[in-house]
Amino acid sequence: VQLQASGGGLVQTGGSLRLSCAASGRTFRFYNMGWFRRAPGKEREFVAGISKHTQTTYYADSVKARFTISRDNANNTMFLQMNNLKPEDTAVYYCAAKSADWVRRRAAEVNAWGQGTQVTVSS
């Protein structure tokens, strides 16, 4: 599967952005999908995940109640709605496809990555 992320930008504290991840190929529905981010000087970290069949969602504690992940299997697309953004959310956001479930949220287990989209939150 090939992934293309979009929707990043510059927003003020408290603002919102919606990220999209478009997948090519017919295998999108067979993958658990998710988002990671990398802030300057930090390692890539898990943000949110959604399972392939039941669409169970998983979130990092830092984004719970602010971010919502969703997917549209008919159109091979995944979304991340980000509300009440904070400066600490500033990072490059990557969409990810993973065969295994999201019980373990390690970047090393991701099978395919999108190219990343920059999110900058000004204070």
Architecture overview:
This protein has 123 residues and is mostly beta strands. Helices cover 0% and strands 50% of the residues. The protein has no helices and 11 strands. Strands 2, 4, 5, 6, 9, 10 and 11 form a 7-stranded mixed β-sheet that branches. A hairpin with a 6-residue loop joins β5 and β6 (57-59).
Fold topology:
Elements: E1 2-6, E2 9-12, E3 17-24, E4 32-38, E5 45-50, E6 57-59, E7 67-72, E8 77-82, E9 91-98, E10 112-113, E11 117-122
**Rg from Cα:** 13 Å
How far the N terminus sits from the C terminus, by CA atoms, comes to 37 Å
Structural class: mainly beta
* Element string (H = helix, E = strand): EEEEEEEEEEE
**Nearest-integer average pLDDT:** 95
| DSSP strand content | over 45%
Tally the helices.
0
Please give the number of β-strands.
11
Helical content, roughly?
Answer: under 10%
As residue ranges, the low-confidence spans are none
